[in-house]
Amino acid sequence: MLPSQSYVNITFFQPHSFLMIGIPGLEAVHGWISIPFSSMYTVALTGNCLILLAVGRTPSLHQPMYYFLSMLALTDVGLTLSTLPTTLAVLWFDRRLIGFNACLVQMFFLHSFSVVESSVLLAMSFDRFVAISNPLRYAAILTNNVIIRIGLAIVARATLSLFPVPFLLKRLNFCPGNNLLSHSFCFHADVMKRACADITVNILYGLYVVLSTVGVDSLLIVLSYTLILHTVMGLASPRERVRALNTCVSHILAVLIFYIPVIGVSMIHRFGRHLPHIVHALIAYVYLVVPPVLNPIIYSVKSKPIREAMFRMLREKRQG
Fold it and tell me: Domain 27-317: which topology?
């Protein structure tokens, strides 16, 4: 009994830490690469925080559409902060080690904010559908209580979906010396491939989470816009049609910016193993960094009330 127990204890191995990388093959110029990354992180945090402040301090923006926009901005702040510390630590200081448990925590928040973002985009498409198809009852349907419940449901859904993932990874036996990750952050598909055990359960559960969240959300968003298009085509005036569709442009761009990289990451992790590591890294950075950068730019450019509220706040700050 004793030898067998000793053997089990020795053969089960979990690394104390993982070794992260920045941009594979470009380690010598990480210092220069950190400049655009730092700029993008700054734009993402500044832009999304400005949207949050603009909506919070402007009574005329206390409407369902802008509440959902605030949820998107808050999610983008969370997504940015999930990857910022380790990415800049690797690029600035070449600090590449991350503890095993810290890696699982980062992975949980990173994927949770991704699921939340997908759910918020779905809620925003529902908001546009109600506003266009039933404008007279818009405020009565999307009351503050309903919006709060939607927000809580979104957070609960992401938390419950991702909660088992770290524990499914902790049960795995990892290979000694195989602790090199493919990114400067902890990605579920990347971490589980470092294991020396059967990861079928992890793969199947990961696939279930993707299909039941991002997959379902994307189908419902397409359905929402099919119904929106049907409603718009029923409007008598071409001018009214253009005006109605124009209110959806920002959201459509936000959806494309989020879902196209998501599809790219999923396809590459499953079918692109032969591709260079730099391709995997760049697609992952596009997926995690670009949407939080572009979303506030899109909404500030396309939404006049948001743009005016942001400029008003900046002017008040300068005068103060």
Answer: Rhopdopsin 7-helix transmembrane proteins (1.20.1070)
